[in-house]
Amino acid sequence: MIQIRARGLRKLFRTGFTMRALEAVRGVDLDVKDGEIFGFIGPNGAGKTTTIKMLTGLIHPTDGEAWIQERSVTDPSSRRHLGFLPEGTYFHEYLTGRELLDFHARLLGLPRDVRQQRIPQLLERVGIPHAADMRIRNYSKGMRQRAGLAQALVGDPDILILDEPMSGLDPLGRKDVRDLILALRDEGKTIFFTSHILADAEMICDQVAIIVRGKIVHQGYLDDLLGQESQGVELVVEGIDEALFEELKAVAQRAVVQGPRFLFEFADEQEAEKALDRMRDAQGRIRSLVPRRRSLEDLFVEETKKETRA
Amino acid sequence: MTGLNRILVVAHNTYREAVREKLLYNLLAFAALMILSSIMLAKIHLGYDERIYYDVGLAAIALFGVLIAIFVGINLLYRELAQKTVYTMLAKPLHRWEFVTGKYLGLVSLLALEISLMSCLFLSVVWYKDASFPLELLYAIELIFMELVLITGVALFFSSFTTPYLAAMFTLGIWMIGHVLGDIRDFGNLPDAGHIKPVSEALYWTLPNFDRLDLKGPAAAGEAIEISSVLMRTCYAMLYSGILLIGSIVLFRRRDFR
Fold first, then answer.
1. Considering the domain boundaries, does residue B187 fall inside one?
2. What is the pLDDT of residues A161-184, one digit of tens each?
3. Same domain for A256 and A121
4. Do A175 and A247 fall within a single domain?
5. Average pLDDT over residues B117-144
6. Chain A interface residues facing chain B, Cβ-Cβ under 8 Å?
7. Is the predicted pLDDT of residue B238 greater than 90, yes or no?
8. By a Cβ cutoff of 8 Å, what residues of chain B touch chain A?
9. Which of A113, A252, B81, B207 is the most exposed place for a label (fewest CB within 10 A)?
10. Tens digits of per-residue pLDDT, B22-55?
11. A275 and A146, same structural domain?
12. Which residues of B touch A106 (CB under 8 A)?
């Protein structure tokens, strides 16, 4: 089943005194399937947040339509099984973490017994059980992000739309959020999220869409987008002299000195094989030899540059 | 869950936020000072004790009620938009009309509390000074509350499409004009008024007539007030507030939250 669908979604803003037209989103089509983690990535100002706001009913599309679980996003009932974390965490500062979740649970119509059972569980799950009775205004940035995630999960939604869920988190916090997203997927939930941290997105996404200047330039499953074939070979060695380093540097795509080690990137395996032979002759020590796959970052940079030039 | 429940959840949260406003307590403190000052003023104006208690007490309830309605009311809706707390609320199955109605009811509950507190203090002064308490004073207080309900409607209407500063200025302007609409109409009816007449008539029939809700003078003077007259004025305020609420909802529904 398609959980989130968009067809020809477009948004035109009028800005400034002269009401100049700014096309923030230009005909976005999306299909997010049940139980998928869908990464929506793009540079700043690409139209990610505007698209998300159209999906959550905060912005009216100029053209096109979108549906959540087959219900038009213009109908608030489409958000019955939706959890949303906006970019930046905006809460009523005077509430405690527990009160915040209770308020959002009451908006969703959850009965008191469900609220009393679920709220402590959720605070525990996002890692802030100790801050349950602390006012939000005293939360750190990371704690606010975790409270925001708990708020998105309070209705036990089928679909989660998370705008930059890892923003403001330290490496441990990012890992917690990644693990949480994966666990939610395992529970059968569909997750649609944006991120600037491409390594995180690459680690957890099933499907990815890259949006540049309001238009989706690439969309598909990660394996299909990045391909399986090697994009080159990375070789790390020790114990070679400067003359050999210079010789290999001439044939490598990149050569870097890392203390006692030398890192070379070769365009293909044949070049790497030749370098290995020279290394053995010179009695150098091989520390690692890794085929290099195209990363999401490579694809992102390529597509963004291509679109910007166009 | 019904729409009414969601409205009540928003109203409760609005009320909870409003009672934490420092401005509210500052204004309430000034109102209390003004009501208590009537004891001193009565000593200066010998022989008019009761009239002074009534005039000063009712004026304090009305004036500070209006200031609270405008400044606290406008701030609350604006903050919800400026601090973007509205995002997570409207991304739930909450209709925008439910959100606006909930905000309005939350503010009206706050005003009811505020009027009750100030009235209690006013009554305490009257009781302490052994003055009489005619029923007409309660009618006047009820109409002050209706005036605040209507002003909140005006404030909500303006804050649904403009900045809080402008919304406060517009609301204050409408409130002041709304107290002199009768005079404006009379001015338009003067023989040499010329082309002003259509303007004064348009203002008279379109803007909220706050003068109709002002029975402080007759109540303080001990004049008899018919209950039917109070009910008619109450209906007027409620009907006008309903129209403003609908207007606010229409404007709010069209809004994009960028």
1. no
2. 999 998 878 888 888 889 999 999
3. no
4. no
5. 91
6. 13, 50, 53, 56-60, 76-80, 82, 84, 86, 88, 90-94, 103-104, 106-109, 148, 151-152, 155, 161
7. yes
8. 1, 5-6, 9-10, 13, 16-17, 20, 83-85, 87-95, 254, 256-258
9. A113
10. 888 888 899 899 988 888 887 877 677 888 889 9
11. no
12. 9
Establish if A300 belongs to a structural domain.
no
Of A195, A223, A251, the one marking the end of a domain is A223
The model's confidence at residue A292, banded by pLDDT at 50, 70 and 90, is: confident
Tell me how many domains chain A contains: 2
Chain B residues near residue A80 by CB distance under 8 angstroms:
93
Structure tokens at A6: 């968009």
CA distance B117 to chain A (A): 24
Specify if A302 maps to a domain: no
**What are the φ/ψ torsions at residue A88 (nearest 5 degrees)?**
80, 150
Do the beta carbons of residue A201 and residue A208 sit within 8 Å? Answer: yes
B205 within domain boundaries: no
Query: From A95, which residue of chain B is nearest by alpha-carbon distance?
Result: B17
Say which CATH number the domain at A155 has. 3.40.50.300
Q: Are residues A209 and A257 in the same domain?
A: no
Minimum distance, in Å, between the CA of residue A39 and any CA atom of chain B: 20
Minimal CA separation from A238 to chain B, in Å: 55
Q: Which domain holds residue A254?
A: 230-293
Is the model's pLDDT at A12 over the cut of 90? yes
Question: Nearest residue on chain B to A80, judged by CA atoms?
Answer: B93
**Shortest alpha-carbon distance between residue A183 and chain B (Å):** 23
Q: What is the pTM of this model?
A: 0.86
If asked whether residues A203 and A248 sit together in one domain, one would say no
Q: Is residue B189 part of a domain?
A: no
d(CA A203, CA A295): 10
Domains in chain B, number: 1
The range of the structural domain enclosing residue B82 comes to 3-179+214-254
B interface test, pick of A49, A50, A89, A92 with most B CB neighbours within 10 Å: A92
Nearest CB neighbour to A56, from listed B5, B91, B95: B91
Q: Do B88 and A109 touch (CB under 8 A)?
A: no
What CATH code is carried by the domain that includes residue A243? 3.30.70.980
Contacts of B1 in chain A (CB under 8 A): 108-109
Residue B221 lies in a domain: yes
Which candidate from B10, B95, B257 shows the least CB-CB separation from A53? Answer: B257
Residue A215: beta bridge partners? Answer: A212
In a domain, A51, yes or no: yes
The complex's ipTM works out to: 0.85
Judged by CB atoms closer than 8 Å, whether chains meet at B87 and A90 is answered as yes
